[in-house]
Amino acid sequence: MSDYVLVINAGSSSLKYSLVDAATGEAPAVGLIEQIGEAKGHHSHKGPDGELSTDLKVANHEDALRAALDAFASHGPSLDDIEIAAIGHRVVHGGSQFGDPALIDDDLVAAVTDLVPLAPLHNPANLEGIKVARRLFPDLQQVAVFDTAFHQTLPPAAYTYALPLDLRDDHGIRRYGFHGTSYALVSAEAARLLGRDLADVNLIVLHLGNGCSAAAIRGGASVDTSMGMTPLEGLVMGTRSGDVDPAIHAHLVRELGRSVEEIDHLLNKESGLKGLAGGNDFRELSSRREAGDPQAELAFDVYCHRIKKYIGAYYAVLGTVDAIVFTAGVGQHSAPARAASLTGLEGLGIQLDADRNTASSNDARAISTDDSRVAVLVIPTNEEWQIARETIDLIG
Ligand code: AMP
After folding, report:
1. What ligand 1 atom has the least distance to the C-alpha of 211?
2. Which has fewest Cβ within 10 Å: 63, 194, 250, 263?
3. 215 lies in some domain
């Protein structure tokens, strides 16, 4: 059997796909179709026979997947030459049912559909991707890999909200956590870099991408994490607010007459760095900050202050910490964000090496001083590879 997995990440108006060799992490093809259902969409595809970047009007996810298959034919690799072992789907919310990846069948589709109320912004799109792929590849095994699964080890004290019992028991209102595939990959890699068994290390991992979250990981198991029932809670993100006083919601309704849909949109799409400084791209924000823009400076400060607070909190949760790990776009590439998030934490045994922090590298590496009690690591994440590996592991 081949180790090639077609990894599909279906969003509400996008379809991201990659063909990944689960054994090596190599991806001979990666592609993205955006603005599905809109007047003007875009398709990019990178394969061994060239790169495609073209405007393309795409009506729905089925047309998007068909366009992806056309791109495999025109820009490679040819799917006649490469045998796909299975399809791995990223599914955002697996509720309390799914602590592991699961083979996709009608029952699984029904179970993920039942979870839509917990993830109305994500699961419907993931389901659409699953349905379309099952139609176009009826003979291939397909696997759902859940963002929440890694955090099923959270203890009740960490996952329980202080809300009445009926809400918690009857409506599944609890903390679930997300970015699980990233945490699984990065924590294993961190143990390797430290030369220790994963079972013996305590880690604080900071996944800082467009979505941002933190996790306290003891011996490879998540014991606390910043995202909650949905991916809105916790750190400041590109467009999501992260933690806000829940009374703000009632205030927005009562005093400003906002609807529930408007508040959902506000907190998920118009807040975070975008709300603070007008844009969600951290690179742009960094350039503006360097040019002395006070809004960008405040956004950066709020963003890093929140990270520092979570590091302190998770240090207390874990008791001892072997490493703090930065990953994803901002975590891997922004030396100023890493430095600002760790500044003043020397008393906790965290000593950043300024030169190592600013040295340019795409490799997994340590950026702490040699005598830092707590190692500080930068580890590239690769959620597609992890999804491919978990898919192959499941189908055997
Ligand atoms: P991700 O969701 O992991 O792709 O991360 C996306 C975020 O990482 C965006 O806000 C990017 O602006 C940010 N990012 C990517 N490269 C850099 C960089 N070199 N410096 C600062 N931020 C970056």
Report:
1. 2
2. 250
3. yes
* Alpha carbons 206 and 326: distance in angstroms, whole number: 5
- Clarify whether residues 15 and 128 are in a common domain: yes
| Enclosing domain of residue 63 | 4-146
Whether 191 is in a domain gets the answer no
pTM score over 0.85: yes
DSSP 8-state assignment for residue 321: -
4: CA distance to ligand 1 center in Å?
A: 28
Examine the domain organization and report whether 11 and 117 are in the same domain. Answer: yes
Q: What CATH number should be reported for the domain holding residue 218? A: 3.30.420.40
pLDDT for residue 230 is more than 90: yes
CA distance 306 to 298: 12
Task: Examine residue 168 and state whether it is found in any structural domain, yes or no.
Answer: no
333 lines ligand 1 (CB under 6 A): yes
Of 30, 32, 330, best ligand 1 pocket probe by most atoms within 8 Å of the beta carbon: 330
Hey, CA dihedral for 147, 10, 306, 372, is it positive or negative? positive
Cα(333) to centroid(ligand 1), Å: 7
Whether 1 has a pLDDT exceeding 90, the answer reads no
Helix axes 123-136, 61-75, angle to 10 degrees: 60
The model's pLDDT over 12-61, given as tens digits with 9 standing for 90+, comes to 999 999 999 999 999 999 999 999 999 999 999 999 999 999 999 999 99
Are 253 and 379 in a shared domain? Answer: yes
Q: Tell me the sheet residues that pair with 53.
A: 44
User: Does ligand 1 lie within 6 Å of residue 369's CB atom?
Assistant: no
